[in-house]
Write a structure and sequence with these properties.
single chain; alpha/beta; Carbamate kinase; 2 domains; four-stranded mixed beta sheet
Length: 309
């Protein structure tokens, strides 16, 4: 099978954990131990989040006042390289020496008229207390929003329209390479009035970009790996129930929160509709079982309705 695995932020950095290189490597090692189990007989493409990493680089850049801070698209490119390097190394230490790897900087086109630019919603960077966040917002012109009992910077999250490197990704897969790409939803770009491509201050949702990526690669399975073992209704309440299988039409009627499970459900539903294949939302620690069909919330057009675990 050709499988696209979208690693959630918890695969790189757990909530509240210091953003040290050692912590990120330790978390990536846990993810790669699972991914290594599904490599035999399959073609693998790995996408990942990068919100905390971009936020950290942004803060570090702001501390160096001799030059203007680098824009988000450049920071996104930097983190794609950094995270891809660690994934390659940790996964390479688990697989046969002859397995080839490639980390690809991935530019993704967005529409300049996307309404998301008027309503920033995508959190990036570390969490802050309300007082810290308000101070930073005043100093740097940020938009901030609540994130649980903390606050984070938010930026526009336009929809992905085109993945420019889709052809080289396919070429690499044809040569049996494991490809790490579309990190953080890809590097957001658009064409200016002069007809030239340029980067922009935005963050594309990683799961929506992974869905587009999986569709354009004709993937057999999209795995959206997160920190819960399924999508739930009434999550966190005594009445919560885990969804085992669902048709996209029925899944979307449940109204998942935009700031958490919503984009994952939207991404899974879009992939299922575009391709007629299956997308699964589940735990990072269950990736092997997800591929075997025994774990996670499976979304496809094959069966109407919803069943619960």
């Amino acid at each position: 099978m050709r499988i696209v695995v979208a690693l959630g932020g918890n695969a790189l950095l757990r909530r509240g954990e210091p953003m040290t290189a050692d912590n990120q490597r330790a978390n990536i090692r846990i993810a790669t131990e699972q991914i290594a189990k599904i490599h035999p007989g399959n073609e693998l493409v790995i996408a990942h989040g990068n919100g905390p990493q971009v936020g950290l680089l942004s803060l570090q850049a702001a501390a160096y006042t001799s030059v203007s801070p680098y824009p988000l698209d450049v920071l996104g490119a930097e983190t794609e390289g950094m995270i891809g390097y660690i994934i390659e190394q940790e996964l390479g230490n688990l697989l046969d020496f002859e397995v080839p790897f490639a980390t690809l900087l991935t530019q993704v086109e967005v529409d300049a008229n996307d309404p998301a630019f008027k309503h920033p919603t995508k959190p990036i960077g570390p969490v802050y207390s309300k007082e810290e966040a308000e101070k930073l917002a005043a100093e740097k012109g940020w938009t901030i929003a609540p994130d649980g009992d903390k606050y984070r910077r938010v930026v526009a999250s336009p929809l992905p329209k085109r993945i420019f490197e889709i052809r080289p990704i396919k070429w690499l897969l044809e040569k049996s390479a494991i490809v790490i790409c579309a990190g953080g939803g890809g590097i957001p770009t658009m064409y200016g009035e002069d007809g030239k491509l340029k980067g922009i201050e935005a963050v594309i949702d990683k799961d929506l970009c992974s869905s587009l990526l999986a569709s354009q690669l004709d993937a057999d399975l999209l795995v959206i790996a997160t920190d819960v073992n399924a999508a739930f209704i009434d999550y966190g309440k005594p009445t919560q129930k885990a969804i085992g299988q669902a048709h996209p039409d029925d899944m979307e009627k449940l109204g998942f929160a935009a700031g958490s499970m919503g984009p994952k459900v939207q991404a899974a539903c879009e992939f299922a509709r575009r391709t007629g294949k299956t997308a699964v939302i589940g735990s990072l620690s269950d990736i092997e079982a997800i591929v075997q069909g025994t774990a996670g919330t499976r979304i496809s057009t094959a069966t109407p309705g919803i069943t619960y675990l």
